[in-house]
Design the sequence.
C-alpha cells in the first residue's frame, strides 16, 4: 500500500518535472513568436508573454521589403540544397566503393577518412588552404569542404553493407557497370539512410555561419545566420533606420527588437516545420552511428 | 533491368573474366579517388601549414622567404597571461561540462518511467528541439530573456517590484562559467536523452521481466538494468569528452555569448586563436596554439580510451 502511494507520488512528480522541462525548452520560442506579431509600440514597455498584444504583420512586411535580408536568405537556402546534394553524392559514392573488396587500397582509404574525425588541423592552416585554393570570399567554401563527411560516410557504408548482395551480382552478370548498379539498385534501396543524412546535412548547412565568419567577407555571400548575429550584437543601425523609416511611412512603428524577433522566427521556421517529421530519422541515424562508432 | 543491359549480357570466358575484373577495379577507383582526393585536400594538406609555427609567417610571402624563429611562438604561448587565462577558462568550462554529463542519462531514465507514450514523445520532441537550432538563435533566445534593455525577466521583475534595478546576467563575469554551462545543458539535454533512450530500447525486455519476478521495484530495475544498459554509451561520450577537453564550451557558443564584460571568464582557446590569428594576423602564433592543442587532444583521447579499456573493456578508437 505504502509502496503504491510512493509510486504514485513518483509518477506525478516525474510528469510535473518533465512538463517544466518542456516549458523551459519551448516557451522561449513561443515568446519570440507572439512578440513578433504583436504591435511593436505595445510591447515597448512590457513584452507580451501569454498572448500577442494586438496582431500585425508589420514586422514581417518590413523584413521582406528590406533588401539586405533577401540575399542572405537565398544564400542559406542554396547552401542547404546544393551542399546537401553534393554531400549525399560524394559521401555515398566513396562509401559504396569502400564496401567493395575489389577496390585497391580500400583499408587505407577507409582509415584515412575515419582518422579525420579525430584530427583537428586548426583554424589558420585551414584559412591558408582556402586562400591558396582561391576559395576565400566564394560560395564554394560553404559546400566543397563538406562533400565527404566521415560521420555520414560511416552511416551510409554501414547501411550499404546490409543490402542483399544478390541483386547487385545479378545485375553485374547482365553486364551492368558499377555506376549503373550504384545508381539504379543501391541508391533506390537506401532511401532511409540517404534521407537521414540529407536532413542532418541540410539542417547543418542552414545553421552554419562559422565558415562565413572565417572565410567570407563579401556581403554577396553573407548567410542569414551571421546577418542575424550582426543585428543582435551591433546596435542594429540598419534596423533602427528601418524603424525610423517605417514611423514616417505608417502609423505603426517598428522597433529593432520586434524586427529581430521576426527575423529569428523566420530563421527557425524551416527547421521547426520539418522537425516533427524528421525526428525519427535523426534517432535512427544516431543509433546506427552509435552502434558503429 | 533495362532491355539494353539484358542485350549486353553475354557468357564470359575466363580471360574475359580477368578483363572484367580489371574493369571493375578501374570503375571502383574512378568512383572513389576523386572523393578521397577531396578528403586528402581538405583534411591532410592543411597539416603542411603546421610548418609555419617555426616562422613569423605573413600571408603573401613564401615560407622560404621567412627566417626560422625556433620555438618562439610556443614559448610565448607558455608565458602569455592572456593565453593562460584562455586555457584556464577552457578547462573550467570543459570540466563543468563533464560534471553535467550524466544529466541526459537521468532524463532518459525519467522518460523511460513515463507510461503514456504520446506524452513521452511530446517531451522528447520539444526538449530536443534546441539541439537543432544554431547558436546564434540560442544566443538570441537568452538575450531576449536576460538582457537589460528589453529582456523579459528584468522587465517582469521590475514590474513586480522584486528588484530595484535590472541585473545583467549576460555581462556578469562571476556567473559566466555556470551560466554558460546551463545554456549548454538547455540546448543539449533533450537530444542527449534521446541517444540514451536509443540505448535503453536495445535492452532485452526479458531482463526486466526476470527482475520483476524476483520482486525488484522500479528503482532497482533502473539501477541494475537500465543504468548498466546505458553505460557503454556514456563511456563512449565521456571518452570523447575528455578528448575535447581543450574545446571548452565550443567556439560557436562562446563567440556568440562573449562581450567585453565577461571576456576574462569566457575567452577560450578557440576564440583566442580566432582573435589572434584572423583578427590580429598573428598567423604563426595562432597556429602554434592550434598545433599544441591538437597534439594534447589526441594524447588525451588515446589516454582516456586506454583507461576506459582497462576499466570497462571497451575501446572506442
Sequence:
Amino acid at each position: 500500500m505504502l509502496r503504491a502511494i510512493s509510486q504514485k507520488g513518483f509518477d506525478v512528480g516525474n510528469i510535473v518535472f518533465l512538463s517544466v522541462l518542456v516549458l523551459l525548452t519551448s516557451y522561449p520560442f513561443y515568446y519570440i513568436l507572439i512578440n513578433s506579431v504583436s504591435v511593436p509600440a505595445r510591447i515597448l514597455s512590457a513584452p507580451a508573454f501569454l498572448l500577442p498584444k494586438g496582431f500585425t504583420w508589420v514586422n514581417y512586411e518590413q523584413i521582406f521589403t528590406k533588401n539586405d535580408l533577401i540575399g542572405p536568405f537565398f544564400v542559406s537556402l542554396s547552401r542547404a540544397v546544393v551542399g546537401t546534394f553534393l554531400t549525399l553524392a560524394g559521401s555515398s559514392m566513396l562509401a559504396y566503393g569502400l564496401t567493395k573488396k575489389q577496390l585497391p587500397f580500400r583499408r587505407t582509404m577507409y582509415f584515412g577518412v575515419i582518422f579525420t574525425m579525430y584530427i583537428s588541423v586548426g583554424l589558420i592552416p585551414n584559412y591558408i588552404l582556402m586562400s591558396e585554393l582561391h576559395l576565400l570570399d566564394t560560395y564554394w567554401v560553404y559546400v566543397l569542404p563538406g562533400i565527404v563527411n566521415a560521420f555520414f560516410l560511416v552511416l551510409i557504408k554501414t547501411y550499404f553493407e546490409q543490402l542483399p548482395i544478390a541483386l547487385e551480382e545479378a545485375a553485374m552478370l547482365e553486364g551492368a557497370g558499377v555506376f549503373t548498379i550504384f545508381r539504379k539498385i543501391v541508391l533506390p534501396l537506401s532511401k532511409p539512410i540517404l534521407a537521414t543524412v540529407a536532413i542532418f546535412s541540410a539542417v547543418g548547412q542552414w545553421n552554419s555561419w562559422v565558415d562565413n565568419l572565417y572565410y567570407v567577407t563579401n556581403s554577396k555571400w553573407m548567410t542569414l545566420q551571421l546577418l542575424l548575429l550582426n543585428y543582435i550584437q551591433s546596435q542594429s543601425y540598419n534596423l533602427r533606420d528601418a524603424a525610423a523609416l517605417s514611423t514616417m511611412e505608417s502609423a505603426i512603428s517598428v522597433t529593432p527588437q520586434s524586427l529581430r524577433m521576426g527575423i529569428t522566427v523566420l530563421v527557425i521556421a524551416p527547421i521547426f516545420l520539418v522537425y516533427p517529421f524528421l525526428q525519427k530519422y535523426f534517432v535512427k541515424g544516431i543509433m546506427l552511428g552509435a552502434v558503429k562508432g | 533491368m533495362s532491355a539494353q543491359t539484358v542485350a549486353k549480357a553475354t557468357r564470359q570466358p575466363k580471360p574475359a573474366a580477368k578483363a572484367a575484373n580489371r574493369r571493375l577495379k578501374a570503375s571502383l577507383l574512378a568512383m572513389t579517388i576523386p572523393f578521397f582526393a577531396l578528403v586528402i585536400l581538405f583534411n591532410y594538406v592543411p597539416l603542411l601549414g603546421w610548418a609555419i609555427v617555426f616562422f613569423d609567417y605573413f600571408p603573401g610571402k613564401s615560407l622560404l622567404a621567412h627566417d626560422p624563429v625556433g620555438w618562439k611562438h610556443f614559448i610565448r604561448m607558455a608565458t602569455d597571461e592572456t593565453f593562460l587565462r584562455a586555457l584556464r577558462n577552457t578547462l573550467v568550462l570543459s570540466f563543468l561540462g563533464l560534471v553535467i554529463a550524466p544529466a541526459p542519462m537521468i532524463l532518459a531514465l525519467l522518460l523511460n518511467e513515463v507510461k503514456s507514450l504520446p506524452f513521452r514523445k511530446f517531451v522528447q520532441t520539444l526538449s530536443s528541439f534546441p539541439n537543432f537550432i544554431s547558436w546564434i538563435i540560442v544566443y538570441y533566445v537568452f538575450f531576449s530573456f536576460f538582457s537589460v534593455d528589453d529582456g523579459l525577466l528584468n522587465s517582469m521583475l521590475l514590474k513586480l517590484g522584486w528588484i530595484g534595478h535590472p541585473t545583467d546576467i549576460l555581462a556578469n563575469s562571476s556567473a559566466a562559467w555556470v551560466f554558460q554551462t546551463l545554456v549548454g545543458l538547455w540546448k543539449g539535454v533533450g537530444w542527449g536523452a534521446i541517444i540514451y533512450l536509443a540505448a535503453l530500447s536495445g535492452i532485452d525486455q526479458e531482463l526486466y521481466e526476470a527482475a520483476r519476478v524476483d520482486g525488484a521495484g522500479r528503482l532497482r530495475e533502473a539501477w541494475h538494468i537500465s543504468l548498466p544498459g546505458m553505460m557503454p554509451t556514456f563511456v563512449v561520450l565521456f571518452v570523447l569528452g575528455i578528448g575535447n577537453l581543450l574545446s571548452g564550451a565550443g567556439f560557436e557558443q562562446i563567440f556568440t555569448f562573449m562581450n567585453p564584460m565577461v571576456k576574462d571568464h569566457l575567452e577560450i582557446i578557440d576564440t583566442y586563436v580566432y582573435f589572434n590569428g584572423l583578427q590580429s594576423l598573428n598567423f604563426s602564433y595562432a597556429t602554434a596554439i592550434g598545433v599544441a592543442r591538437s597534439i594534447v587532444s589526441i594524447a588525451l583521447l588515446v589516454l582516456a580510451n586506454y583507461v576506459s579499456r582497462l576499466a570497462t573493456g571497451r575501446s572506442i578508437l
